[in-house]
Amino acid sequence: MHSLLKNLVFRLLCTIFAAVMNNMKNYIGICALAIAVLSCKGKANDTQTEQVNGLYSAVLANSQQAEARQQGKKAQVVRLFEIPAPLKDRPEQILHRRGYTTSYNQTTKTPNWVAWHLTAAHTKGRINREQEVFTEDEDVAKGQRATDNDYYNSRYDRGHMCPAGDNKWDQQAMTQSFLFTNICPQNHGLNKYEWNDLEMLCREWARKYGAVDIVCGPLFTTSGEQKTIGQNKVWVPDAFFKVVLCRQGSPKAIGFVYQNVGKKQAMANAVRSVDEIERLTKMDFFPELDDKTETRIEAKAELSDWYIPRKP
Asked: What pTM value is reported for the model?
């Protein structure tokens, strides 16, 4: 009886040992496979760059690239097609926000330009503007930034460059659209009618084409004394420009110039080629495009080439 019990115990131990060894082989195999995959992935991260042409956050893209550089890796290349070339002839402070990027000018107390990548998804959202207030941008030194008091009793609207309507998709984006580094003194009639109509049309284009790249800003053309408002002497634009790029299918671009006045201005009369607006602004738009495409699409502008929604 004792011998039989010892035999059963021995067989049981052998069975358990065999099972453990079999599982151990599987475990070792899985670990080896995982290590190989991770090793390949690490090498890919060290040697590859990826071009991302779709939805992104400029703030996130910059932080990710900085982190990658600190780790000695090549960062993901996010091509910001909407960002103009750097300016050399005027002050420029680049400020990356959740929904847009602005080039701020401490002399004029207005942006040189504001640029954003508007997707179909960003044309809608549940965030509303009712609780928002216009706010000084604390990333700009006092005395070099506009304030709400500058606009008080000035007879000019606080005109958005990147509109609140393009930022309903995110609370932070909406709040940041009310920073004065995104604002210019704008005639009330222009702000309420023509400029608003153009903003709505750009949202229609984003929905139609999937996404568009937009740059807009003030134009100062007066040769005499510059008109200003407020204690901080915020420059009053003579006009506003907007350029729009569509990269879906065969790329195309179009520009607009509206005078900063209250009289009616037909959209068809406001159309300009990007080349024309580059001459007016002394800026280089859409430099990330290849030279051949940039030359072709910036030379002319036809409103008929773009989708125009039917009026009800």
From this structure: 0.78
